[in-house]
Specification:
The structure is a homodimer of 410-residue chains. Chain A has 410 residues and is an alpha+beta fold. The first copy, chain A, folds into two domains: 18-278, L-amino peptidase D-ALA esterase/amidase, CATH 3.60.70; 286-407, Roll (Ubiquitin-like (UB roll)), CATH 3.10.20. Chain A contains twelve helices and 15 strands. In chain A, the strands form three sheets. Chain A has a six-stranded mixed beta sheet with strand order 13-12-11-14-10-15. A five-stranded mixed beta sheet of chain A has the order 3-9-8-7-6, sandwiched between helices. Chain A has a four-stranded mixed beta sheet with strand order 1-2-4-5, with helices on both faces. At the A-B interface, helix 9, helix 10, strand 13 and helix 12 of A face helix 9, helix 10, strand 13 and helix 12 of B.
Chain lengths: 410, 410
């Protein structure tokens, strides 16, 4: 079950960025169940620049530790397994991640330090290193620029569908392509699902600037479906610029090329983030919670997350029940100091549901239901306190959420 | 569905404290469905002292506002309706609550200000004031000291069973009784269920001291199944001391009588709070999350709530699946600065499951399942940082939670 209308888009290839997929039987089911590939290799030329953003969880997984160690090197390859997170696996987990990097380096004739490893799946179990290393050659044999869809499937865990986004922009008569894939499930607290995203562009972007662009884009996309600092053990987002486009290098922050590139990158990242929410575990609805006229962005986010995390709001959304009382209760306990509840307006879609802190006189259940029965819902809260606005995205809470998470390991 | 083993106990009557119950058809179903009484009146003599603790939600309900206004008066009666919360109802909500108080005062020949009103149920709908006021006489006609069980049922909403606790203590050869009832459902975030608790004692306790005793007891009981400040619009806890016992007045904080009374009061309050969690919406398990050796109580609570609120931990508990990785992930995103994860031990029951941040060598799935399949589970986290310990209580997350909350208004 997932929100409709998120078809996998046409994926423009990115010159120089190749992917290869294979089945390593990471889960080790007996007999082996080949649902899909579970090992993905990504390679790119020496002149590429690479940026990365990683989880802030105190228990960060072994591959994340290795990624952070290696990121300053001239990265040439990414290796991703699904089915096992290699998290909470201690020193052996680090050794396992490095052993896999070493094998990738050997197969591709590069250095171990030039490989970034990623894992997603169950926490606390050791990786089947031999099954993975013995499959790397098969993944390398499969490397091609046109493998985006297979790679998107290869990194999936509980995802019900592959997620991708791709745009091209014209810069000074030359085309720049930005294409990416993501995996993860937006849950009650989406921050607890491992989210992985890999975005490639053929633009030429200086490494430091690329890192800053990625941090900013993550903040406006993946960090708007999660709470600061509340991340899984493995969350990672990588941006690779292969430098193969004939467009000039993107350097200065105020150039037209820079602004066009930022807008395009942000839109790809937001699409990838929204696709995660819309494929939430058991999600049937994609909900945008917009908080307007807060005193600060922090305050706006507090109120937005309070609503977006409320299981009572989320079950009401699932039931298509416009139980607006649950929305105002969530606003009330968001902890905003000096909140004057008698000023607050709430809209669902274009319907005014709460006016000056009370049920709006014009509101009717029929109006509310006409909005709540849709599969994309906007909840807009006007605090009338200041000038700060923020939007976060979430999904509803269904029977299937419990089912998926109660049965995930069985 | 609720955790087994919470039978309604023998309830000792409290001299002077009377309850009367009636059916006012608060929900106004057509045709009227008499599931149980929905109006409860409580009275006590003039020499009683009364203490109260209320929600911190910015949207506090009309009856809570009236309670706070009246609490300093010589309170003589409480009137409680279930089925409608009279919250987010603006000025009319206040008028409605006062109209009901006025009617109670008239029937009992006391002043309107001597009545505290309470409501629990759906938010944002106006009370059926006439149906309530016309039923108060019937409730008054029913007043008796032996009505604890009926009162416990009368205040219920989605609760599956009445909740009560009762103890007697001997103080200087005289008996003091403490008896109370509660309602509410411990949910994913238990703080969002309206919790009501009414505790009566025949002890004689000075009003200021009684208030302090109640604040302290709430902090160690109801505030350990909720997050500070994150409360529903209607949460209220009232303690009435009727002064009818022959035991001497409890005055000084260090007397033996005082210490015995505090211990007994705290145990009654904790039983009432735990009964709420165990009757959580769809709950099948009662879980105590204990965090030891934190640097501060605040830090211990942060970690404990991070685990207790994790929907992934809660679904694993429901599935009896000892997925310890979900516990460590929740510890990791609790936001503890400088946390050394390689020191942390976790026990479930008496089984060591995580040792020094990793799966314990002695741990096996069979051992974990033997604990997780029980309906009372202790999760103990040793942070090895300091001297502060805290315990919070929660329940698991089941299919029924979603069902109950998706269908609550239909």
């Amino acid at each position: 079950m997932a929100v409709d209308g998120f078809e996998f888009p046409e994926m423009h290839t990115v010159a120089g960025f190749k992917m290869g997929c294979a089945f390593a039987d990471v889960k080790g089911r007996k007999p082996a169940v080949i649902e899909k590939d579970d090992l993905v290799l990504m390679t790119f030329p020496e002149e590429s620049t690479v940026a990365g953003v990683f989880t802030k969880n105190a228990f960060c997984a072994a591959p994340v530790i290795v990624c952070k160690e290696n990121l300053s090197e001239n990265i040439r390859a990414l290796v991703i397994n699904s089915g096992n997170a290699n998290a909470c696996t201690g020193d052996r987990g680090l050794t396992d991640a490095r052993t896999i990097d070493q094998k990738v380096a050997e197969v591709l004739s590069i250095q171990e330090k030039q490989v970034l490893p990623f894992s997603t799946g169950v926490v606390g179990e050791h990786l089947p290193v031999e099954r993975i290393t013995s499959t790397i050659q098969a993944a390398a044999d499969d490397l091609k620029e046109a493998n985006w869809t297979r790679a998107a499937r290869g990194i999936m865990t509980t995802d019900t569908r592959p997620k991708g986004a791709s745009v091209t922009i014209d810069v000074g008569g030359e085309t720049i392509t930005i294409t990416g894939i993501s995996k993860g499930s937006g849950m009650i607290k989406p921050n607890m699902a491992t989210m992985l995203a890999y975005v490639a562009t053929d633009a030429k972007v200086e490494k430091q600037l690329l890192q800053q662009l990625l941090v900013d884009a993550v903040d406006q996309s993946f960090n708007r479906i999660t709470v600061d600092g509340d991340t899984s053990t493995n969350d990672s987002c990588i941006l690779v610029a292969t430098s193969q486009s004939r467009a000039s290098e993107i350097k200065t922050e105020n150039s037209e090329a820079y602004l066009a590139f930022v807008a395009a990158l942000n839109s790809v990242m937001l699409m990838l983030a929204q696709a995660i929410v819309a494929d939430g575990e058991g999600a049937t609805k994609l909900v945008a919670v917009k908080v307007e006229h807060a005193e600060s962005n922090k305050e706006a986010l507090r109120v937005a997350y309070s609503i977006a995390h409320s299981p009572l709001v989320k079950t009401a959304l699932f039931a298509s029940d416009p139980n607006w009382g649950r929305i105002v209760v969530a606003i009330g306990y968001a902890g905003v100091q000096g909140l004057d509840v008698s000023k607050i307006d709430v809209h669902i879609g274009s319907v005014l549901i709460v006016e000056a802190g009370q049920r709006a006189p014009s509101y009717s259940e029929a109006l509310g239901q006409s909005v709540f029965s849709q599969d994309r819902i906007d909840i807009t809260v006007d605090l009338k306190r200041g000038d700060s606005n923020e939007t976060v995205w979430t999904s509803d809470l269904s029977y299937d959420y419990v089912k998926i998470n109660a049965e995930y390991r069985s």
